[in-house]
Amino acid sequence: MAEKKAVDGMRLLSVGEVARRAGVPVSTLHFYEAKGLIASTRNAGNQRRFPALVLRTIAVIKVAQRTGIPLEEIKNAFGRYPPNSKLTAAQWGEMSTAWREDLNARIRTLEALRDSLDDCIGCGCLSLEDCPLRNPEDRLGLEGPGPRVLEAACRGS
């Protein structure tokens, strides 16, 4: 199949070709488009066509999702720039910087959780409510809801 050209000279790809090259199902592309993460145009036969640059956007979305960044945050990051535009190295740097502190906080939380689980499971009681070492008389329950031990570990206290 011959590639079609957009008016501005950008290559246009069918939804199937984008899915194949990006390594995602067509339904994922439809989902991303419905969420406003990517944009397509329609040809005379009302078929979706995506600019080839969408492959880079999808790659960033996939990596960001793997790191736990919510789709809404990804959308907000891309929303600062025109849809289907070729972002500069500086713009990519801005996106990564914006996500860096959030990712660092997630890493600290995961490390604290990992370390807490080792300590807790090591004794065999498996109960933070009744644990005589970590939470005697359920004093953490009096401090409020949520993972008190983990939250304290993340704060460094």
Structure description:
It is a single chain. The chain is of the alpha+beta class and 157 residues long. It has helices at residues 15-22, 26-34, 54-66, 71-78, 89-123, 139-142, 148-155, and strands spanning 4-5, 11-14, 41-42, 48-51. It has a four-stranded antiparallel β-sheet with strand order 1-2-4-3. Helix 5 (89-123) packs across helix 7. 12% of the residues are buried.
What is the topology?
Elements: E1 4-5, E2 11-14, H1 15-22, H2 26-34, E3 41-42, E4 48-51, H3 54-66, H4 71-78, H5 89-123, H6 139-142, H7 148-155
Helix pairs in contact: 5-7
State mean pLDDT (0 to 100 scale).
82
Helix count, DSSP H or I runs of 4 or more residues? 7
Could you describe the largest sheet, including whether it forms a barrel?
A: 4 strands, antiparallel
Sketch the topology as an H/E string, one letter per element. Answer: EEHHEEHHHHH
Given as residue ranges, the uncertain stretches (5+ residues, pLDDT < 50) are: none
The end-to-end distance, rounded to whole angstroms, is: 62 Å
Q: What name does CATH use for the topology of the largest domain?
A: Multidrug-efflux Transporter Regulator, Chain: A, Domain 2
The percentage helix is 40-55%
Q: How many structural domains can be distinguished in the coordinates?
A: 2
Total number of beta strands: 4
Major beta sheet, strand line-up: 1-2-4-3
Please identify, by name, the CATH architecture of the largest domain: Orthogonal Bundle
